[in-house]
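Worked example 2:
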Amino acid sequence: MTFSSLFENIAKIMGRYWYVFLVKGIGYTLILSLIVVFFGAIFGSILAILKRTKIAPVRWLISALVEVVRGTPALLQLYVGYFFVPMMLDIKGLSSEQQAFACCAIALIVNSAAYVSEIIRSGIEAVDKGQTEASRSLGLTSGTTMTKIVLPQAIKNILPALGNEFITVIKETSLASTFFVGELMTSYLIVKGNTYLSTE
């Protein structure tokens, strides 16, 4: 195979399968990533707050959950989500592709929430404790101290790491191709199966 024939084949594939790659593949990848990051940030924030609670059993339970999720492979979590989410939730009305998308999205949200919770927790703890002590000595409540003093300062530590998490999620969506969700890696597998041209 020469470079010219390689590029000719790539041009033919893109001409014939541009919709599969550009519209469906990239579209599904970005939609899945946005859903995962959005809900991962919400649930991650909740986990970070619960991890800082004074109720010891809740703190231990959340810490254990976060460590298990962060300590196991994302592909294993996708398998667990794919096989166990339909048992826990009633999603029988969806098509097989929609069901696979929902299960993979839920598994990736749980994965992302665990990482986001640690990002938020570390961002909050990076703020000097003197800020909290000073605001409490001025008579502010702990809730007001957190929302008005600590969080605005923590945001500058949290945002760059959240950007990194979004990039990581975009890369992790390729694992969803195991269940033919429809994202970019699935599009590659479909076109490769139709053309038998894996390199192109």
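Residues 70 and 144 are 31 Å apart (CA to CA). Helices lie at 3-51, 56-71, 74-88, 96-125, 129-137, 142-172, 184-195.
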